[in-house]
Design a protein that fits this description.
alpha+beta
């Protein structure tokens, strides 16, 4: 998955947000694993075993920065022998992406991202593969702040735990892109619990654009015509997220 938004001098804040997201997903994941051990090989799993599986999955997740672009990737090679663990890894990755997107928005870094799946080669300073290229091109076309999901990535996600899908639901939307609109699957990056939604969503539905203005204009960003347009488009997607969260509660 590729995020595009930050300036190079913002990378420390973004890196810290990724680390925080790791911890959140690991804590949730270990509780989920312990609660539904019938879906994994060891029916007698305890909390420590569950946490070790979560740590192994998160250790397979990498993040790299290239100028104003961040690449977050998950290698599934280590989990291919156990389909149930592989599906868990995919679910945790989506939850991780959701946590990153929400955390960065709260800190004033609206992002545009895309999740894809496929064969890639990743080195210390180099990433090669069609999924990277496709994700980058798609995210650059987005005229709103959010994360879209390609068809191959969505198919992988369909096999994960239902409990993880509730944490990170996907939603079909008609989204604004350069040159018009397209139908796409998006990550609903809003927390489903109002108590954890904080300032981004604990406001009246008519106040969303004002809250977003504070986020979009944070960290010294200039609010030109293009930024205002993306802000309004983002507000439309957030209203769709809120409606979905309400229907799932």
């Amino acid at each position: 998955m590729i995020f595009s938004a930050a300036q190079p001098n913002d990378l420390k804040v973004i890196h810290d947000s990724i680390v925080d997201s790791y911890k959140i997903v690991a804590d949730k994941g270990s509780r989920i694993l312990k609660g539904v051990p019938e879906r994994v090989a060891d029916r007698g799993m305890n909390q420590d075993q569950a946490r070790r599986i979560c740590d192994a999955i998160l250790n397979a997740t990498q993040s790299k920065f290239f100028s104003d672009t961040m690449v977050v990737s998950l290698s599934l090679d280590s989990f291919s022998a156990v389909p149930s663990i592989k599906s868990l890894a995919v679910g945790f990755f989506f939850c991780h992406v959701k946590s990153i997107a929400y955390t960065l928005m709260r800190k004033g870094f609206p992002i545009r991202g895309c999740i894809d799946s496929g064969s890639v080669i990743s080195g210390e300073k180099l990433v090669v593969g069609t999924p990277y290229v496709k994700s980058l091109h798609f995210s650059e076309r987005l005229e709103f702040s959010g994360v879209v999901v390609t068809e191959p990535a969505e198919k992988l996600y369909e096999c994960t735990y239902d409990s993880l899908k509730k944490i990170c639901p996907l939603i079909n939307l008609q989204i604004p892109v350069k040159g018009g609109y397209v139908d796409a699957v998006c990550v609903n990056w809003l927390p489903s619990c109002e108590k954890t939604s904080s300032d981004v969503m604990q406001c009246g539905i008519n106040d969303i654009e004002q809250v977003l203005y504070e986020k979009f204009s944070a960290n010294g960003k200039v609010m030109g015509e293009s930024a205002i347009s993306k802000l309004r488009n983002t507000a439309m997607t957030i209203r769709a997220f809120l409606a979905q969260n309400k229907s799932l509660s």
